[in-house]
């Protein structure tokens, strides 16, 4: 079996480690620091390199976690090589140029670069309004072929305005707004979390909130919905396809030769972690029913034979038989008032979230919000999992 851990709200709250998670890692690793179970960390964060996130997590948890074990929301962009050599606009924050290069993009521009060339496009902040503008620069600015939304930006109004400008001009910022919006340029978005759990006692806006603003403004302006080429990050199925292959590779590196039959996705967000794991499990069960081998061709934008992962292509063969969703009470989700955290609640008494916080393009199925089981924290989750798998952490 393999483990898929969410990070924020499961292992840490902001920069503060959750004590139960640190205790869990003492049990999950050998004295030499090696993991006893194939483990991947699946985060919807998209504004950092996997190496940076791995180092932060290693320091917080007191164990060595490699970048190969960390899956960012943008990691599945490796599965879209058809965009890697096109001129793409990147929106987000953090080291976007380093992230883009690591994924495989070779030709990209940032929001700030567009502001430098077209300063009159960003007019909300009066203090940042331009005084001079170079027409020579605008004439040589390249056509943008696609938009990549990595995560929530710092200045929402700037990114919202410029991304909309690129979409309305079909990537030609020197041109006026186009009359035809049927042929929208491709837009790929990472991290669909409406909310996420930080140090605050209340959830904070995530990139999903920015996407909601973008969708609303675009549709209001052109009279038709914004169309995404791809959505990545939990709860998208593409994310779990990628995570499954990472688990498979890690298991092989650990010397495990038997197939990984069960995945356990441990998270705190019913609308992302639980919904995504259950959606992936639903697809697995559908495949089993029709006796298909591999993923349905329409579900991923690559050939069935190969999945693009770091370093080399990996043959895509479905071995996982189930993906179990595990909800913990250390982040966004908390049991009803009066319920003991030592026994949070049974699935039978679990309160389904009344409002769907998932992405616009994902149909809401209330049954997919129900976890396989609920535990107080990640350490208790591991107790339950190893018991189900008849696996001893003492060996």
Structure commentary:
There is one protein chain. With 395 residues, the protein is α/β, with parallel strands linked by helices. It folds into two domains: 2-66 and 237-294 and 306-329 and 338-344 and 374-389, Rossmann fold; 77-231, Rossmann fold. Helices cover 30% and strands 15% of the residues. The protein contains ten helices and 17 strands. It has helices at 19-28, 50-61, 96-103, 111-117, 135-139, 156-168, 207-222, 237-253, 270-290, 378-388, and strands at residues 2-5, 12-13, 16-17, 39-42, 70-71, 88-91, 108-110, 146-149, 187-190, 195-196, 204-205, 230-232, 262-267, 306-308, 313-315, 322-328, 373-375. The strands form five sheets. It has a six-stranded parallel β-sheet, sandwiched between helices. A five-stranded parallel β-sheet has the order 7-6-8-9-12, with helices on both faces. It has a two-stranded antiparallel sheet with strand order 2-3. Strand 6, helix 3 and strand 7 form a beta-alpha-beta unit. Helix 1 (19-28) runs parallel beside helix 10 and helix 6 (156-168) crosses helix 7 (207-222). It starts with a strand and ends in a 7-residue tail after the last helix. The model is unreliable at 293-306 (pLDDT under 50).
